[in-house]
Amino acid sequence: MARLVDALLIESTGxxxxxxxxxxxxxxxxxxxxxxxxxELVQRLTRMASASxxxxxxxxxxxxxxxxxxxxxxPARLPAMRDALIDGEVGVDGLLAVAGPLEAMxxxxxxxxxxxxxxxxxAEARGVGPDxxxxxxxxxxxxxxxxxxxxxxxxxxxxxxxxxxxLRGVRLGRVTDGVVPISGALLPEVAAQFQRICTxxxxxxxxxxxxxxxxxxxxxxxxxxxxxxxxxxxxxxxxALTVAASSELLPTIGGxxxxxxxxxxxxxxxxxxxWAHVDGTDEPVSPAAARHAGCAGVIQRVVxxxxxxxxxxxxxQRVFNKHQRRAxxxxxxxxxxxxxxVPAAWCEVHHVTDHANGGPTHTDNGVxxxxxxxxxxxxxxxxxxxxxxxxxxxxxxxxxxxxRWRPVTTSPTRLLDTIRRRT
Length: 423
What we know:
two-stranded antiparallel sheet, 16 helices, three-stranded antiparallel sheet, 423 residues
């Protein structure tokens, strides 16, 4: 029934389009109905949103039956898909899935080849295709239509690639409410790589995972992630940028790796008051952001007097060297927060006792945390301490109301040892 309703809506919209194409404005259906264009008229008639009406108009374009000057009908651009639509075998999603790739080929493909692809795809939608498969859903029809497009349009990829290269871009807006809006368009392969990074960082169940052992054996050891998908993607991007900047593979700036510069008054950092300032933006950030950057990266202390004169320049200190990081990664395996599971290669090393408070740069004082948990560890939801060189976590009360300090079992070797001790 839904597909038949789609067919009625598409056919009706096509008829509105056809009756509104006359050169004489006063004779157009849209003008006689007091509307500016087809979209406005269909919106008023159906009470649909403009985006939904645009989809229906696009679908109607591919199956619209035009008329010749003598009044005789012309065949639709995709006649087989039109018949499948009228019969209720395909809806607006399926029609658009086929029409998009086929019509993108334009005049570069012979009409006979286009009609052949149309016939096969309509048969697949009905479930009577050459392979005898059941009726194809919209996503499968799109995949098959893209395959037909790649076979028929050997030269189509190049102009599409040129157009995509022109459209690509990322734009950073002005700071609003403490965040910077981002917009733009990614090339498909770049978007796919970013999606893979998001999957690797934000899908703890695909990793061995961090095990936390409350007293209740029925408790799921994997904690729910309360971040939204957009927040997860933001944190994955932040992780990727941090890893890339510290990889020593990027071009240098002034002879050094791309380095984020943050300045903060010492008393503000100690008292957790005031603001820190990031080089490259006029928007101030919290002292917590400064502590996070200092804990994860390179620290170089620059002392200025009240007038701004440089009094003292310290030497750069990388918080943990590569040998210490390997050892901590072997011990912790991944982010030690229960249920996170971000692998060691994507994690930052956190000073359990803050470096500014005299915490040593030693493996007994360093633990692996992902970017998100490291950035917000000072919120106090999760607490970390070291017990003779072994990290222990006190979980949030909503998860473990006993509030006990518990060692986290992360690496496969330590997990196996724990199981052996218990058995």
